[in-house]
Amino acid sequence: MGCASSKQFKRAPGYEDPIILAMETTFSVNEVEALYELYKKISHSISKDGLIHKEEFQLALFRNSNKKNLFADRIFDLFDLKRNGVIDFGEFVRSLNIFHPDTPMAEKIAFAFRLYDLRSTGYIEHEELKEMVLAILNESDLLLSDDAVEQIVDQTFKQADLNGDGKIDPDEWRAFASKNLGLLKNMTLPYLKDITMAFPSFVLTSEVCDEEL
Q1: Which residues have C-beta within 8 Å of that of residue 59, sequence separation ≥ 6?
Q2: Could you report the per-residue pLDDT of 154-208, keeping only the tens digit for each?
Q3: Cβ atoms of 9 and 89 closer than 8 Å
């Protein structure tokens, strides 16, 4: 009662019953239906084919469809669960669930690990972390010297690489991130808790500061 008709979802690429999506995520059925409106807005911003392409995703995240950014690329790649170069509605809802305020911290930590594991080796290596730090700083329009960036990366490894093998494994990352929750600030979008009440632009800001790394 009171819900929007599910008929509007039938022609959506990657359509799945909102009830099923709600059962598998933190979102309610009403919230899934509200997310469909957001999905339509993003997926029709450039190509109008009902699928979210990388340029549309970057426009939604960073208000710029042309600016190349590793951070935006990694988020898109992790949302693209089927690895076919586009994001459909089901992928959108399941992936966006990570950013819900009520999603368990353990899931956010695991997602962040995959974000930094650029080569998908199961470890975060020194160069991978440096690349991501540079990308996030660039997106935030923060300019630091090479020495300052190296200090951030070195300090992170000093705290996180407990066995000293030059790479951070999932267990080490979990322990490190649990003690440095500032790292996960970008893993939560507060408005998702009230998506049926407020309808802001889908903008994910990225910030890095010395206290976070």
Answers
A1: 42, 45, 46, 65
A2: 999 999 999 999 999 999 999 999 999 888 888 888 878 777 665 444 444 444 3
A3: yes
Rounded Cα–Cα distance for residues 174 and 199 (Å): 33
C-alpha span between 15 and 196 (Å, rounded):
20
Whether 21 is in a domain gets the answer yes
Domain span holding position 42? 14-103+188-194
Query: In CATH, what number is assigned to the domain containing residue 30?
Result: 1.10.238.10
Residue 28 falls inside a structural domain: yes
In a domain, 9, yes or no: no
Residues 167-172: contacts with CB under 8 Å, at least 24 apart: 167/123, 167/124, 167/125, 167/126, 168/123, 168/124, 168/125, 168/129, 169/122, 169/123, 170/110, 170/113, 170/122
| Interatomic CA distance for residues 153 and 199, integer angstroms | 37
From the centroid of its chain, how far is CA 114? 10
| pTM, two decimal places | 0.80
Q: Which residue carries 């190296």 as its tokens?
A: 150
- The domain total for the chain is 2
What residues form DSSP beta bridges with 167?
Answer: 125
Q: Is residue 118 in some structural domain? A: no
Q: How far is it, in rounded angstroms, from Cα 93 to Cα 14? A: 10
